[in-house]
């Protein structure tokens, strides 16, 4: 059956909206591809967020598109998200997504991954957590770390905008010390939680801290993280996606902010465990990366 | 707006709380009465042929060519629409709802009542719609519209539809089309 579930019955083509027909014809499901799906697909691929409901110029919206384009097997991937701006975009993408309660995302993802492995032992199914810093570093920190301790085969991606953005600008654990927000007028009192370091010490086989300034770098990290999670164990990506609204930038200034931070607070951090390193070498030889 | 439901957490009254349950095998349901399948088919055809803006809502199980049965049913549903002079609005789902889609025209399981209201649909057949969507949709439509809803279900039926026939496979649809043609001829429409 597989992709037959996406083929429109010829009898009904005349009543289906053009959007749905376009998706059948132009989506980049991995089995239809003669080359790996990637960033180059972004301009003309229907399922990679043709439209979205976030603010103009939002770096998070761009980062989500990079992540979606980098999924190795989109039709066999389940994205588990949590409450946040990004959750507004999930109704617009043609992928399996599960919206968890705020902070519960890694617990939910663990359960889904285990069931998928039991239900589909012969098919590689990827489970990817996508949540903001509030859900990952604050409210969901315990669930997140516990999933690392348990060595769950899931990839966790934190869109770190250093603030609870869609609720008006409260500080989060990921907010930098001293930062003033509308609902943190005295400035943050303690240091930013280095989640990428926590991920490393908690058992992640791959932990990266980066910004979303370079699409190819994000896509590569996503692909590597998912492949390692599939075979070896938990992986983590912390991607800085500033909330331009909360830090007072205009729509065209998000990229500049990320590029500035590439050299500063978000200077590259990458941890790869020895077994993951070995596995990545094998993947490169096989042309999977 | 509907009254508060008997369960006090759903605003919609559910048929099961009023003692209506799905029909036994080989039988059908017309409002609260268990009847023979043929009787129900005749009534369904009559409702569809006489009510304003009769519409068929094909769901994902027939809109997509995932099995031979789905392909066969698609052909028969097209024929059914022709015999019943019915419109068709796909209830596709499993696909993104891009903002440019007009949700009040292209039915969405979350608000089929809007589609039925806006299009002044007075009789509707749900066919190939997954159980969980049909359950929600039929409850809302039953509570908030005067549309005569019909569930042509491949499993055990839906008590919230005004008319329910169950275990409907391609051969049953052929039987329904035959009956609908007879009713159409009797009514002279």
Description:
The complex is a heterodimer of chains A (289) and B (189). Chain A has 289 residues and is an alpha/beta fold. Chain A has one domain (37-286): 3-Layer(aba) Sandwich (Rossmann fold), CATH 3.40.50. Helix content of chain A is 33%, strand content 13%. Chain A is built from 9 helices and 7 strands; from the N terminus they run H-H-E-E-H-E-H-H-E-H-E-H-E-H-E-H. Chain A has helices at 18-26, 59-70, 105-119, 133-138, 141-149, 195-201, 215-231, 254-262, 274-285; strands at residues 77-81, 96-99, 126-132, 155-160, 206-211, 235-240, 269-272. In chain A, helix 7 links the parallel strand 5 and strand 6. In chain A, helix 2 (59-70) crosses helix 7. Chain B has one domain: 3-Layer(aba) Sandwich (Rossmann fold). Chain B has 6 helices and 7 strands, in the order ββαβααβαβαββα. The A-B interface holds A 1, 4-12, 15-17, 19-20, 23, 47, 50-51, 53, 91-94 and B 58, 62-67, 70-71, 74-75, 77-78, 88-90, 92, 94-101, 106. Chain A: This is Ferredoxin oxidoreductase. Chain A: Keywords: Oxidoreductase. Chain A: InterPro entries: PorB-like (IPR051479), THDP-binding (IPR029061), TPP_enzyme_TPP-bd (IPR011766). Chain A: It comes from Sulfurimonas sediminis.
Highlighted features:
heterodimer, A: 289 residues, alpha/beta, Rossmann fold, B: 189 residues, seven-stranded mixed beta sheet, 39% helix, 14% strand, disordered N terminus, Carbon monoxide dehydrogenase (chain B), CdhB (chain B), TPP_enzyme_TPP-bd (chain A)
| CATH class category label of chain B | Alpha Beta
Helices and strands of chain B, in order, run as EEHEHHEHEHEEH
Q: Roughly what fraction of the amino acids of chain A lie in strands?
A: 5-15%
CATH architecture classification of chain B: 3-Layer(aba) Sandwich
Mean pLDDT of chain B: 86
What's the CATH class of chain A, please?
A: Alpha Beta
What is the beta-strand fraction of chain B? 5-15%
Query: Treating each run of at least 4 consecutive H or I residues as one helix, how many helices of chain A?
Result: 9
Rounded to an integer in angstroms, the radius of gyration calculated over CA atoms of chain A is: 19 Å
Low-confidence spans of chain B? 1-7, 94-99
**Total count of domains of chain B:** 1
Summed up, the domain count of chain A is 1
**CATH level 3 topology of chain B:** Rossmann fold
In whole angstroms, the N-to-C terminal distance of chain B is 35 Å
How does the overall form of chain B come out from the CA principal axes? globular
CA gyration radius of chain B, whole angstroms: 16 Å
Helix share, percent of chain A: 25-40%
Counted beta strands of chain A: 7
- Structural classification of chain A: alpha/beta
Protein name (chain A): Ferredoxin oxidoreductase
Pfam families (chain A): TPP_enzyme_C
GO molecular function (chain A): oxidoreductase activity; thiamine pyrophosphate binding
Keywords (chain A): Oxidoreductase
